[in-house]
Amino acid sequence: MEQVKLPVFRLINMYIAQACFTFIYIYLLSCIGEKVATQLKQELFESIMKQDIAFFDQQRTGELVNRLTSDVQDFKSAFKLCISQGLRSIMQIIGCGTSLFLISPQMTLTMLLIVPTVIVTGTLLGSLLRKLSRDAQAQAAKTTSIGEEAISNIRTVRAFAMENEECELFCQQLEEASRLNQRLGFGIGLFQAGTNLFLNGMVLATLYMGGYLVSNNQVSPGDIMSFLVATQTIQRSLTQLSLLFGQMVKGLGAGARVFEFINLESSMPIKGGKKIPYHSLVGDVTFNNVTFAYPTRPQQVVLKNFNLYLPAGKTVAIVGSSGNGKSTVAALVERFYDVDEGSITIDGVDIRELDPSWLRGNCIGFINQEPVLFATSIMENIRYGKPGASDNEVIEAAKLANADEFIKSFPEGYSTVVGERGVTVSGGQKQRIAIARALLKNPRILILDEATSALDAESETIVQNSLDNVSRGRTVLVIAHRLSTVQNADMIVVLHNGVIVEMGTHDSLKAQRGLYWNLIRQQEVSENISRALG
Ligand SMILES: Nc1ncnc2c1ncn2[C@@H]1O[C@H](COP(=O)(O)OP(=O)(O)OP(=O)(O)O)[C@@H](O)[C@H]1O
């Protein structure tokens, strides 16, 4: 009885130990996998956030999101699989390979002779498959970006009744992705079939050679059996590895796409450089012989030898017909792009020497035509202008921006959540929340890029009042579409093809009867027509 109990206890101990090791191994692996994925996502997101604006002019949001989600996921899965099954298979191959050597060095060496051919073929096929995998992943990312664009612009899609066209476009891209993935599957299948053929060939070769060696009494039949068993274990492990190979190809492709952006250096730093202390910041802005073309369209020069002086505390308006470079002037002051030639200075300091995060975060307030709000409360949206501002500071900024009254009229007041991109508030309300947000940082320089052009007449008056309120005592650059809003500016600059053609006050420019006068007349005619049309 005692003799039976002993092996049973041993077995139980072994099973318990095996369960413990299985638990530890799976848990550890999932911890490592999650840590790797989290680290990658974090680094990738940080790197994307720090890229130049020109990078975002080129990339589609959906593709970037795809790299952050699917690609990191594919890399993590492949990583976990390769570590778990890959390590086990490699250990088995090493162990059984050693046994093979011990049993018959002669047979083992003969088998090893064909290994280099297999490695070379495998490497060639591997690089081909990696390319196929990269193409398939890029196509999947493109498909996601098209879907994402349609969903996030659903109002425009609906307004143009383009649902079917969007579905069709999405399906086309999806089918292309599926075709590329099928081609990849074909390649991986071919690779695995080839591997199996080779492995079975190895068994046959062993039998053939073994038979020869037994007949010459060089090895015993027992040795042949042991050799076959070890060969088959190696065969199973190699089959396992070849199955893993497909996953590895996908993982490497995904990893390459993730690391491509992690390792991408932006040409413009986010932080670092001079800061002008608030009490000595005057707010003079000067464009000195600036020439600029967008990095994505280098052959189209938008500004050529552009000179402009924005005196501290004054309001300068830039007018001109569409596409003449007005918004570009604003983007350059914000240093969204660096000028190609010349310089832009604030109080005589080249903005390239200034700390960009100070420049954008403290020195300049920017309000554009369609300000974007985040899907959080109004309080948090305004606080975005100065993280750490107290509730009272936020409310004061909202009062100055004529926003306090309507915010309080909402049942949930400042806690009202505005929906994605602020869809649940009106255009004028969104604009005033954005003004409060820009105002909270108390900027010396304010840029208003067509800030009222998207509003109806009534909202425009309210928002214009808020803007007049907040403009006092600051250097203001107004990019104007409606000429009526800039009549009181200290100086109006008329831009044509990136060159200043007229400059002066509203009255002096009108008296000149030049381009500005023409623009006013054009606008009056179009306003009369729209009034007549009702
Ligand atoms: N991100 C960009 N990448 C490449 N080209 C651009 C970019 N933004 C604007 N452009 C081009 O630069 C030129 C000037 O554009 P800009 O937006 O400055 O004109 P604008 O006078 O503000 O026009 P609008 O009154 O219609 O807003 C245009 O030809 C435009 O197509």
Kindly describe this structure.
The protein is of the alpha/beta class. The chain folds into 3 domains: 1-104 and 219-265, ABC transporter type 1, transmembrane domain (ABC transporter transmembrane region fold, Up-down Bundle); 121-201; 285-500 and 512-533, P-loop containing nucleotide triphosphate hydrolases (Rossmann fold, 3-Layer(aba) Sandwich). It has 17 helices and 10 strands. The strands form 2 sheets. The chain has a 6-stranded mixed β-sheet, sandwiched between helices. Strand 1 and strand 2 form a beta hairpin. Helix 1 (2-49) runs parallel beside helix 8, helix 3 (61-103) packs antiparallel against helix 4 and helix 7 (163-215) runs antiparallel to helix 8. The chain is elongated. The mean pLDDT is 84. It binds adenosine-5'-triphosphate. Residues 57, 294, 296-297, 302, 320, 322-328, 481 line the site of adenosine-5'-triphosphate.
